[in-house]
Amino acid sequence: MISEKMKQMIGSSSAIRAMFEEGKRLAAERGADKVYDFSLGNPNIAPPAQVTEAAEKELRECKGVFLHGYMSNAGYEDVREKIASSLNARFGMNYGKDGIVMTVGAAGGLNVVLKALLDPGDEVAVISPYFGEYRCYVSNFGGKLVEAAADKDFMPDPAAIEKALSPKTRALIINTPNNPTGAVYGESALKAIARVLEEAQSKYGSPIYLISDEPYRELVYGGVTQPYVAGYYRNTLSCYSFSKSLSLAGERIGYIAVSPDADGYDELCSACSVATRILGFVNAPSLMQRVAADCIDVPPDIAFYDSNRVAFEKALDDAGLEYVKPQGAFYLFVKAPDGDDLLFCQRAKDKGILIVPSSSFGVKGYARAAYCVSPERISSSAAAFAELAEEYGIKKRAGVDKTHKGE
Question: pLDDT confidence of 8, banded at 50, 70, 90?
C-alpha cells in the first residue's frame, strides 16, 4: 500500500497534466482536428539550430566516459564558470562557479533549494496566483505554503506579503514573468518586495530567502523588460531553466544561482550540492550541461510567441471574452464570464477547448490558456471560443479594439 500522503497527492494531482491527458483521450475519440489543447506549457517551436550543432559537437568530440560519467554533484566546473560569467556580464552580478549548481530543470532546482532550507513546520510564502506544483514542492519537505494575494492587476501586494510572513518563514517564492498571468514584476515591484523582506528579517532576526523561479525570464513583449531579481535583494536564490528559452522542456536542464552576498553563502552552496545528490538527481544530465553552456547566450524566438499572443488575443477579442493582457511568458489568463472557473473549463472542454481552471493556481474566476502551440491551433480554435462565449450570452464580435483587465 502507498503512503497516506501520496494518496492525497494523487487525489490533488496536477490539473494541468490531467487536462493534457484528457486532450489525448478526446483527440482519439473526436479526431485531433476537433481538439484545441492549450493546457500544457510545452514549446511547439524547435530548439535553435545552435542547440543541435552543440549536441553534435559534444558527442563527436567526447572521449569515452568523460562526457557521460559522473561529475561533481553541482555539475561540471567549466560549465558553471561559463554560466556565472554570462550572468555577471548580462546583469552586473558577481557570481563565482561555486554559486552555480546545475539542476534537473527549474523544478529540480526548486526542490533542491527547498531541501536545503526547510525543516518540518517551516513556512514558504507565495504570491497567488502561482504555479500549483509549489504546493507539492514545499510539502515534500514538511513545509507549509502561505499565500499572499496579488493586487487587482496581478502584481505583488507588499501589504499582503508582509501579512504572510512570520517567524517561521524561510522563503518567499516569486515567478516573473508569471505563470499563469503573464505579469512581469518591474523594478518598483522588486524594490517593494525587497523592502518587505528586509524589514521582516530585521523583525524576526533570521534570514528570509527570495527564491526566484525564472523559466520565462527572456520571454517578454512590447518593449517590456524583466529586471534581474537577484540584483534587488541579496538573499536571493535564482532557479533557471532552459526549457522555455531553448525549447528543451523534456531535456530537464537548468541551474541554481546563489547570490554571492547571501547569508550563509558557503553553507547554501554546499547544501544545494548535497541536496542534488541525496534527492536522487545525483547530477544534472551531463550532455545537456555542455549543450546549455555552449548556448548560454542564444536568444529565444520571441517573434514566434509574440505572433501567437497577438493571434490568440484577436480570437478572444472577436469572441468577446475578457482576459489579462500578458507582458511575458506564454499564457493568457481568460476571465470566466460568470466567475465559475471550473464550469467555464468544463464548458470549454465540451467545445474541444482544453484550458486549466485558475483554482489550480490559487485563485478563482479565470482559466489559463497556453499559447506556445502551433499557430494553426490558435486560428482553428477561434470558432469554438466564439461558440463558448455565446453560451454565456456574449455575442461574437469582429475587429474589436479594447483595453483588457490587468493591462
Answer: confident
SS3 call for 368 = strand
Judged by phi (left if over 0) then psi (alpha if -120 to 50, else beta), residue 264 lies in left
Q: Based on the number of CB atoms within 10 Å of its own CB, is 124 exposed (0-12), middle (13-18) or buried (19 or more)?
A: buried
DSSP code string of 225-268? ----GGGT-SSEEEEEESTTTTT-GGG--EEEEE-TTSTTHHHH
Please, what is the Cα angle at 113 between 112 and 114, to 5 degrees? 95
Query: What DSSP string runs through 279-347?
Result: TT--S--HHHHHHHHHTTTPPP-HHHHHHHHHHHHHHHHHHT--EEPPSBTTEEEEEPTTS-HHHHHHH
Which DSSP category does 360 fall into? G
C-alpha 154/C-alpha 394 separation (Å) is 25
Structural contact between residues 109 and 239, judged by C-beta atoms closer than 8 angstroms:
yes
For 171-219, the DSSP string reads: EEEEESS-TTT-----HHHHHHHHHHHHHHHHHHTS--EEEEE-TTTT-
- The radius of gyration of the chain from alpha carbons, rounded to an integer in Å, stands at 21
8 Å CB contact between 333 and 363:
no
**Is residue 169 within 8 Å of 145, Cβ to Cβ?**
no
Beta bridge partners of 209: 171
C-alpha count within 13 angstroms, C-beta hemisphere, residue 45: 22
pLDDT tens per residue across span 300-310:
999 999 999 99
User: What distance in Å separates the CA atoms of residue 79 and residue 75, rounded to the nearest whole number?
Assistant: 7
Q: Tell the residue number behind the cell numbers 516573473, with chain if given.
A: 176
Confidence band of 17 (pLDDT split at 50, 70, 90)? low
Tell me the mean pLDDT in the region 61-82: 88
Element (H, E) at 369: strand 366-370
Beta strands in 21-159 (DSSP E): 36-37, 100-103, 123-128, 144-149
pLDDT surpassing 50 at residue 239 = yes
Strand partners, 324: 333
